[in-house]
Amino acid sequence: MAAATVIKNVRIVNEGKISEGDLRISGQRIERIEREITPQANDTVVEGGGRYLLPGMIDDQVHFREPGLTHKGNIASESRAAVAGGITSFMEMPNVSPATTTIEALEAKYVIAANCAYGNYGFYLGATEDNLEQIKRLDPTKHCGVKVFMGASTGDLLVEAPQALDDIFRESPVLIVTHCESGPVIARNRAELLKQKSIFTIDDHPRLRDAEACYASSSYAVDLAKRHGSQLHVLHITTEKELSLFSAGPIAGKHITAEACVHHLWFSNQDYTDRGNLIKCNPAVKYPSDRDALIKALHSNQIDIIATDHAPHTWDEKQVDYDKAPAGLPLVQHALLSLLEHVKQGRMSLPQVIEKVSHNPALRYAVAERGFLREGFFADLVLVDCESSTSVTHENSLYHCGWSPFDGVTFGARIESTWVNGQQVFDGQTVGARPEAMRLRFAR
Q1: Whole-angstrom distance, CA of residue 145 vs CA of residue 149
Q2: How many CB atoms lie within 10 A of CB 26?
Q3: Taking a C-beta distance cutoff of 8 angstroms, is the pair 132, 123 a contact?
Q4: Residue 55: which of 383, 437, 438, 428 has the closest Cα?
Q5: How far apart are CA 73 and CA 51, in angstroms?
Q6: Which DSSP helix (H) or strand (E) runs through 275?
Q7: How wide is the angle at C-alpha 162 spanned by C-alphas 157 and 166, nearest 5°?
Q8: Dihedral sign from CA coordinates of 234, 107, 424, 33
Q9: Three-state DSSP class for 212?
Q10: Strands 87-92 and 120-123
């Protein structure tokens, strides 16, 4: 039997409570959680020193760029950065090259991940206006969901035809996740702004992709889900207006849920002056009032999940005029740290953060045996020191693209260790040998 690990003297954050105790890992799983555990002769002992022990973050929205866009990032590099940031499981999006629109292409990504991923992995199938038969082949126990770009995308992943959307919402055997921005509203906004100016800048981004563009699309998605009884999860909500579409209360029993992303909880349009295209993303970073409304909605549980929408581009790709700059930013290494900063500033509690990044993703996707610190569950763990600090620089970025939108920020916490399936993969300084990461399974 493999040697066990006992993590001593930690404050365990789990299921709404913080309790002092020890945790023992045996093999890939949590064997015991008790007030005090006496290590056995061959156990590895990790002294927690009163630090916080958390379940690993389950990030349900990342873009790791493989295959086809690996000059920006790849599954190995970005999942390596993710575990250094406390993310132990991820679900990756289909807008790669070629796009993941068939079951065969989907399974090919699982083969890549099996040989290089540092965290546990799932992949979405991308919906098109003519791949309904592929969507119907998805297995609820093996596949996390189908991604629908409703209104604003590139290539054949844009789905706007009403009949195609009706068919997808009626027939999908798995959770439908949506990017909601209305292409016609964005085009109308662009035409109106062109009457005032001939060259757009980054300051125009939240005006082009405004609250109406988001609401027109997200309300359509919610209406479709209500009409067909679909399981719907609306990604990266950015506006106060959209919050009226979602019910408050616990996630259990909901068939329509919503999520916010860490950068929309951190930045506002006021940051465009300093960060420029580095924080250009779709949907756009909006206004302080929207950011405040999102944080309030986390408390009311209108927002159920927090994710990253990690989407790296090279530094050079961002150093161009606004209209030519791609949308997206790298986030997985510093996402949890940014949320711990909200805790430090009193905007959220630590149990609330863990509910939104670990418990609720596990519940919404029915991720099997993960997302909680429970005996018998897989040992996906993060040890954090909330009395230390982490300064973000180009030099300590682990992203393939080599930069972070948080460059220059000092967070008031530090990721001390990360375990994936019982194996310590990050020791606070370096990412070690690749763990035995697993394909996520879903208890549906």
Answers
A1: 13
A2: 17
A3: no
A4: 383
A5: 32
A6: helix 272-275
A7: 90
A8: positive
A9: helix
A10: parallel
Please, which residues have CB within 8 angstroms of residue 36's CB and are 6 or more apart in sequence? 21, 22
Residue pair 376/44 in contact by the 8 Å Cβ criterion: no
What is the per-residue pLDDT across 421-437, written as a single tens digit (0 to 9) for each?
Answer: 999 999 999 999 999 99
Positive or negative, the CA dihedral 72, 81, 78, 360 is negative
Q: Note the pLDDT tens digit of each residue in 80-139.
A: 999 999 999 999 999 999 999 999 999 999 999 999 999 999 999 999 999 999 999 999
| Rounded Cα distance, 274 and 276, in Å | 6
How far, in Å, CA of 72 to CA of 62, rounded? 13
- Would you tell me how many other CB atoms lie within 10 Å of the CB of residue 369? 16
Check the CA dihedral 428-433-439-443 and report its sign: negative
Cβ atoms of 240 and 293 within 8 Å: the answer is yes
Question: Which residues neighbour 276 within 8 Å (Cβ) at sequence distance 6 or greater?
Answer: 202, 318
- 345: tokens are 């500033």
CA pair distance 43, 132, nearest whole angstrom = 52
What single-letter DSSP state applies at residue 343? Answer: H
State residue 157's pLDDT score: 83
Give the amino acid at 362: A
**Amino acid at residue number 148:** V
Is-cis flag, bond preceding 67, omega within 30?
A: yes
Residue spans of the chain under pLDDT 70: 1-2, 152-155
3-state helix, strand and coil shares in percent for the chain, rounded to the nearest 5: 35, 25, 45
Beta bridge partners of 58: 89
Smallest CA-to-CA distance from 121 within 443, 444, 439 is with 439
pTM of the model: 0.97
Bridge pairing between strands 381-385 and 414-420: antiparallel
